[in-house]
């Protein structure tokens, strides 16, 4: 007991000395950490500088491609993309039975929502509005048994129809004979039928089993909260006819050539 008290007393007496001795070591460690931080900041600055240069190059490429695209669209008289108007809504109720896959949102006709408008989240298509009241609207989800959406393989010409069957994985049907699809292939709307504009994200192929193709939607239907109700103007302005070429009219293909006039006789001397 006396020994422990003596040891504690010695430690108390030596503590200031040990603290003073430790200060240079701590200062050196702090200095090393500071220098190391400088080197790390320099490396991060270099990496950010290189990334910024790459982004500048991509931005220049994007501007050039945008100009080329606008030029080609003008030359080919390509129809403009449909105009878009949307309102953000919140899900306030789900479908009323085990065989119905619908949700009710808190915006209706008073907010410009109407039947046929499209419901989307940041990841893809949710479904479409099937009924709209004054203050609410009901959406039919892609997974509902009554849902049919014309779709296509992204970047390809293969088209089909996404059929809901009340499961988490709708079925991709009506593919052309010989069409080869693989798990992971991306599915988008095809634009056929006029219900949806082309190119909206749907999901990706999950399984291909015995000729049955199943698609996993990118939307998490079990976690729906906010839905953007989008109105696409599917009837853009009419495309004007190209202007006729300038200059005199061309001769008719069936026009007969006029007979050559005889050369005038030389005057008599």
From TrEMBL:
<keyword id="KW-0133">Cell shape</keyword>
<dbReference type="GO" id="GO:0005886">
    <property type="term" value="C:plasma membrane"/>
</dbReference>
<feature type="domain" description="Rod shape-determining protein MreC beta-barrel core">
    <location>
        <begin position="91"/>
        <end position="230"/>
    </location>
</feature>
<dbReference type="Pfam" id="PF04085">
    <property type="entry name" value="MreC"/>
</dbReference>
<feature type="region of interest" description="Disordered">
    <location>
        <begin position="238"/>
        <end position="269"/>
    </location>
</feature>
<comment type="similarity">
    <text>Belongs to the MreC family.</text>
</comment>
<feature type="compositionally biased region" description="Pro residues">
    <location>
        <begin position="239"/>
        <end position="251"/>
    </location>
</feature>
<dbReference type="GO" id="GO:0008360">
    <property type="term" value="P:regulation of cell shape"/>
</dbReference>
<dbReference type="InterPro" id="IPR007221">
    <property type="entry name" value="MreC"/>
</dbReference>
<protein>
    <recommendedName>
        <fullName>Cell shape-determining protein MreC</fullName>
    </recommendedName>
</protein>
<dbReference type="InterPro" id="IPR055342">
    <property type="entry name" value="MreC_beta-barrel_core"/>
</dbReference>
<dbReference type="InterPro" id="IPR042177">
    <property type="entry name" value="Cell/Rod_1"/>
</dbReference>
<comment type="function">
    <text>Involved in formation and maintenance of cell shape.</text>
</comment>
<dbReference type="InterPro" id="IPR042175">
    <property type="entry name" value="Cell/Rod_MreC_2"/>
</dbReference>
